Amino acid sequence: MTETVSGGSAKAQSKAKGKGMKIERVFSTKGVHPYDEINWERRDVVQTNWKTGDTVFEQRGVEYPDFWSVNASTIVTTKYFRGAVGTDTREWSLKQLIDRVVKTYTAAGREHGYFASTADAELFEHELTWLLVHQYFSFNSPVWFNVGTPSPQQVSACFILSVDDSMDSILNWYKEEGFIFKGGSGAGLNLSRIRSSKELLSSGGTASGPVSFMRGADASAGTIKSGGATRRAAKMVVLDVDHPDIEEFVETKMREEDKIRALRDAGFDMDLGGKDITSVQYQNANNSVRVTDEFMRAVEDGTEFGLKARGTGEVIETVDARGLFRKISEAAWACADPGLQYDDTINDWHTNPETGRITASNPCSEYMSLDNSSCNLASLNLLKFLRDDDTFDGELFAKAVEFIITAMDISICFADFPTEPIGETTRNYRQLGIGYANLGALLMAMGLGYDSDGGRSMAASITSLMTGTSYRRSAELAGIVGPYNGYARNADAHKRVMRKHQAANDTVRTLHTEDLAVHKLATAEWAKVLEIGEKNGFRNAQASVLAPTGTIGFMMDCDTTGIEPDFSLVKFKKLVGGGSMQIVNQTIPRALKKLGYQPEQIEAIVAYIAENGHVIDAPGLRQEHYEIFDCAMGARALKPMGHVRMMAAAQPFLSGAVSKTVNLPEEATVEEIEDVYLQGWKLGIKALAVYRDNCKVGQPLSSGKGENKGADSNAAAAADVVEKVVEKVVYAPTRKRLPKSRVSRTTSFTVGGAEGYMTSGAHNDGELGEVFLKLGKQGSTLAGVMDAFSIAVSIGLQYGVPLETYVSKFTNLRFEPAGMTDDPDVRMSQSIMDYIFRRLALDYMSFEDRSALGIYSAEERQRQLETGSYELVEETGNAAELVVEATEAPAAREASVSESAVKTDTQGAHTTAELLEKISGTAIDSPLCFTCGTKMRPAGSCYVCEGCGSTSGCS
Q1: Are 165 and 193 in contact, with CB atoms under 8 Å apart?
Q2: 8-state DSSP, 278
Q3: Catalytic annotation on 695?
Q4: How far apart, in whole angstroms, are the C-alpha atoms of residue 101 and residue 28?
Q5: Residue 572 and residue 574: Cα distance in Å, rounded?
Q6: Model pTM?
Q7: Is the pLDDT at 694 greater than 90, yes or no?
Q8: Residue 512: which residues within 8 A CB-CB, separation 6 or more?
Q9: Helix and strand totals (H; E) in the chain
Q10: Helix, coil or strand: residue 545
Q11: Which domain of life does the UniProt lineage start with (predicted)?
Q12: DSSP letters of 774-801?
């Protein structure tokens, strides 16, 4: 960065009031350096783009602990090691990376009076090193990029800017944003101070309005992106709901999405990163409308709402509140923008209202604070604090929070900032953003459903403990190195917010012994917060947020990011030495054991999940336990309000907000989005964004079963080879009648004790043409209904309806009778219809077609267990090429999972998202990674690549 503000002057602000902290040993071992307790090994990190085959990165002989996964070591080596590759200055060991950061923090802590003695500083260094090398937490990416290097010591990933109603301020906005983007970070700001296009300038002309200035900023962000990093510049643009240009703002991206579709249909390359997408505006920002309680009540009441002039504050236009709210929801339905930020809720939890209001957020919406400020983040790996008996170790968790918050505050003493105003505000208010990852995996391992009262109670208790401990340590630090400079002015407001957190903690209703134990610890911490804070004040204006934890989540080998649920029940895993395998989440066997299932039951359930990717009808799994294994994607995807309710459970215990997008299915309606936005306000969430599957065109999605209808890549491909015709083509289906004499088969079956018969007849080419079912007594209602159903299906088949369509519609249909069958190929069935069409698929569909639907014979399932492939492969002299394997010892070490949970044949998948697509037969609506070409997966309000750690905008 060319413009930096040194943090050296912060020394005077950290003048010690006490004698420094005494550090307690918790994690490390006395007399042993944390590195000496670990087995280290050398690895080769070679990264390729699987589409082009080009080598993207190569560094051999890097050093990592043997328990770090290939993904973690690859991402850290490629993203965080400093120095030119191939030179002696290049870092080659994780020890060098951690030492570079930790020793810088410890030195700054000594310099600024944080430690009581040199021995305490050394112990702090060992404790922090132990936590990092064992993947208990991670700082945000800028720390790993910059700390301990000759580069500016920027530690913050989140920035909020400001802009006023003047050309100087607007042009300065462009400049400041550019510097932040160049440094690989993102920024947000509120444009509501800029006069609307319905107001006059002092010269007598009409103002341009904020939307017009958004064009210039968008072009700047796009240019910096294309000239530098492999990800887009991340930015947030906010406009108040009472701004006269609000409707134009709401419709900007929706109108551009219509333009994208028109240009795509005309043959232009409109994929994200395509050569023609740059002609479309407003694509480099997330847009949010800042709504007030007044507006939301007007929506509920169906009354008018006033839009106000920026200069005078007078109402210059009134609109129907419900109509405007409908337009916001329609735009979000069409293109996922705008999101909502709930202004009164945000500012009701503001610790510094005497300094100024909170008007905006960072690009991912988790950091909300004063204009011209920044926040450095760190996240804990929750699964590390799960004991062997599957209870959460709240005491150990709180100890880790103490160390991390202390380190984060120290970083502000030496940090550099992109602009002088940001540096000044951050040093004066010292905003921190501690958070966590792996919540979804933790809840599953504990046998708690993500969308359940028990799951929400556990999440609320953990979040309350984290923030309570953070503010308690902040108050203790204030007694040693002083409160933040802006505290005296805002003391009453800050203490009021602490009481609000405590009151929210008192309302948590615990449901089991695990959350009760954590909640008791949180209650004790909030009592200390008020007691110590009353005496010392607080060192930090803010303490906690829940960030996306994209890249650092992979660094910690987390199964889930931020507050997110598990992505899917099956995972794609790379092996040391090369190769890969498909595994079932290892939290699943742990959860099943917790729920009381026996080893043989667990093995059968895990094998079923490995084959089907879901738990529906898994042998022996009780239906009341299904919810524990619900995921973001798949056959039992969580409902939208499940995501909203989890956000609401954590929100009262956060200084900032939750970075999360509420995903809705493609068939979701505008009314459903309206309800999500309305419920978010009522539940006290600070910010909310939605994404409806396939709503956006400009995303490169991989081809496969279930194409993205928004990207319409099949249609685009077809356009290259099919000439456009002007005349109208009328399609008239013709019936392909069966020959008078045809081959048929009769199958007797039993489903859940109910007996029946099925007769199927085929054309001469073997294609199914008719089905007759016999159930119940002749002349009964059931027999009549089955006759009518058989005729309808048979006529459909003869008129060209593919059997695959019937199979996909009628399998997994659930009603009684259901249960065990007498068919060895279909052992369990959810209904008679489910059985019939599975049997027809096995009898008449090709292996490729039915495998796409997850339907296999008993022989094929057995073959998969023995060889790793369902498909019959003829043996050749090159049998070793049938499966991709790593070197023996590392593979054996990383594959220490149930054999039934592993498939070494990943069938061309390169990430978990692609693996889930192949198992489920449906497309995952995520973009492709620019670096390695694989499909990314959602992480908070953006996307992260499982292969190389690249993100779509968040660190």
Answers
A1: yes
A2: G
A3: no
A4: 18
A5: 7
A6: 0.77
A7: no
A8: 454, 457
A9: 29, 24
A10: coil
A11: Bacteria
A12: E-SSTTSHHHHHHHHHHHHHHHHHHTT-
Question: Do the Cβ atoms of 51 and 933 come closer than 8 Å?
Answer: yes
Between the CA atoms of 735, 738, 744 and 750, what dihedral angle is there, to the nearest 10 degrees? 30
For residues 685 and 343, what is the distance between their CA atoms, to the nearest angstrom? 10
pLDDT range class, residue 16, cuts 50, 70, 90: very low
Sign of CA dihedral 765, 766, 767, 772: positive
Q: In this structure, what DSSP letter does residue 817 have?
A: S
CA–CA–CA angle 626, 617, 856 (5° rounding): 135
Q: 273-304 pLDDT, tens per residue?
A: 667 666 777 677 889 999 999 999 999 999 99
User: How far is residue 193's CA from residue 205's CA, in Å, rounded to a whole number?
Assistant: 18
Decide: helix, strand or coil at residue 423.
helix
Which CA distances in Å does 489 have to 419, 486, 493? 24, 6, 9
Listing DSSP states for 736-782 in one string gives -PPPSS--EEEEEEEETTEEEEEEEEE-TTS-EEEEEEE-SSTTSHH
**CA angle (85, 91, 97) in 5-degree steps:** 140
How far apart are the C-alpha atoms of 186 and 224, rounded to whole Å? 12
Tokens 């969430």, located at residue: 685
Q: Is 366 annotated as catalytic?
A: yes
Apex CA 820: angle with CA 815 and CA 821, to 5°? 100
Annotated catalytic residue within 146, 190, 352, 362: 362
CB contact at 8 A, 236 and 286: yes
Give residue for tokens 């030496």: 414
Sequence-distant (≥ 6) Cβ neighbours of residue 382 within 8 angstroms: 392, 397, 436, 437, 438, 439, 441, 442, 462
In 3D, which of 635, 634, 607 has the Cα closest to residue 621? Answer: 607
221 to 179, 187, 285, 338, 384: CA distances (angstroms)? 10, 11, 9, 19, 38
Cα(59)–Cα(82) distance, integer angstroms: 12
Place of tokens 């015709």: 725
Do the Cβ atoms of 536 and 475 come closer than 8 Å?
Answer: yes
What letter represents residue 283's amino acid? Q
Q: pLDDT tier at 733 (50, 70, 90 boundaries)? A: confident
Q: Please report, to the nearest 10 degrees, the dihedral formed by the alpha carbons of residues 548, 452, 382, 410 taken in order.
A: 60
Record: fold of 162-348? Anaerobic Ribonucleotide-triphosphate Reductase Large Chain (3.20.70)
Q: What is the pLDDT of residues 634-652, one digit of tens each?
A: 888 899 999 999 999 999 9
How does DSSP assign 856-868, residue by residue?
A: --HHHHHHHHHHS
Query: Per the residue annotation, which of 140, 176, 286, 364 is the catalytic one?
Result: 364
Q: Which of 439, 436, 380, 548 is nearest to 941 (CA)?
A: 548
Report which secondary-structure segment, H or E, holds 174.
Answer: helix 167-182
Structure tokens at 482: 């002083």
User: Is 362 among the residues known to form the active site?
Assistant: yes
The closest of 485, 371, 675 to 14, measured between CA atoms, is 485
Whether residue 477 is predicted with pLDDT greater than 50 in this model: the reply is yes
pLDDT digits (tens, 9 = 90+) for 803-836: 888 988 888 888 888 888 888 888 888 888 889 9
Q: In the chain, pLDDT over 70 holds for what percent of residues?
A: 81
- Positions of CATH 3.20.70.20 in the chain: 162-348
Structure tokens at 266: 């005309």
Q: Has residue 30 got a pLDDT over 50?
A: yes
Cα–Cα dist 786/775, whole Å: 7
Q: Note whether 783 and 755 are within 8 A (CB).
A: no
Residue 551: name the closest of 930, 264, 27, 947 by CA: 947
E strands present in 28-147: 40-48, 55-65, 137-139
